Amino acid sequence: MAEVRRLWIPGPEGRLEAALRAAEQPVAAVVLAHPHPLHGGTLHNPVVFHADRELHTRGATTLRFNFRGVGESDGSHDSGRGELEDLAAAASWTRGLAPAAPLVLVGYSFGAWCAVRLAERDPGIGAVAALGLPLDVYPFTEVTRLARPIIVVQGAEDELGSPERVRDLLEQARPPGRLVVIEGASHRFPGLARDAAGRLGEAFSALLQELRSSL
């Protein structure tokens, strides 16, 4: 596994603090977006950290970063508007590291909301993966308009979005999304971050095979 490289990348409001794991021959370029900045979300969140490690072990170049105003990133919280532009900047920068590989966005909770919205407007994004889709907080209507693969890893006891509601939403997507349910897990995946990351990794590898076969 490659060592984590701490760095700063250009963002709309200045620098964005980031952590990079570069693969020699990346199967994908992955950008990971953390949970809500006003509720303790950072690039060091355990779910984001373990998802990063898992996807890198499966051959991806991964970048997780802090939204504006978090950690050493410049700027201040912007209720999801500026954060969407932060994610776009991180995706553009990461795309340059592996231009021949598919670009995949991975978001956890608030980060998933940003990832889905960016994917809807950017056709260069190959797929989206979400952990803890907070359907009780954001509508996520963009999912039905993505027209590309989406994976959701949801806790069976997620208090911000039941697996049943997530399944109903994913069935409206084209192609239909894939749901992975983590038994015993609530929204924060307490004690189950590694399990959630492992299941995400399995779905990620299957997704890459599908993307390659469609080329």
Q: Main attributes?
A:
alpha/beta; 8-stranded mixed β-sheet; globular; 23% strand; 215 residues; Rossmann fold
Describe the structure.
- This protein has 215 residues and is an alpha/beta fold.
- It has one domain (5-214): Alpha/Beta hydrolase fold, catalytic domain (Rossmann fold, 3-Layer(aba) Sandwich), CATH 3.40.50.
- The chain is 33% helix and 23% strand.
- It has 5 helices and 8 strands.
- The protein has helices spanning 46-57, 81-95, 110-121, 163-171, 193-214; strands spanning 5-11, 14-21, 28-33, 60-65, 103-108, 127-131, 150-155, 178-182.
- The protein has an 8-stranded mixed beta sheet with strand order 1-2-4-3-5-6-7-8, with helices on both faces.
- β1 (5-11) and β2 (14-21) form a beta hairpin.
- The longest helix is centred in the C-terminal third of the chain and has 22 residues, at 193-214.
- The chain is globular.
- The two termini are 28 Å apart.
- The mean pLDDT is 97.
CATH homologous superfamily title: Alpha/Beta hydrolase fold, catalytic domain
Please give the CATH architecture. Answer: 3-Layer(aba) Sandwich
Percentage beta strand: 15-25%
Largest sheet: 8 strands, mixed
Which H/E pattern describes the elements?
Answer: EEEHEHEHEEHEH
Shape descriptor reads globular
CATH topology annotation: Rossmann fold
Query: In the residues, how many domains can be counted?
Result: 1
* Overall pLDDT confidence: 97
Question: What ranges have pLDDT less than 50 throughout 5 or more consecutive residues?
Answer: none
- By DSSP (H or I, 4+ residues per run), the number of helices equals 5
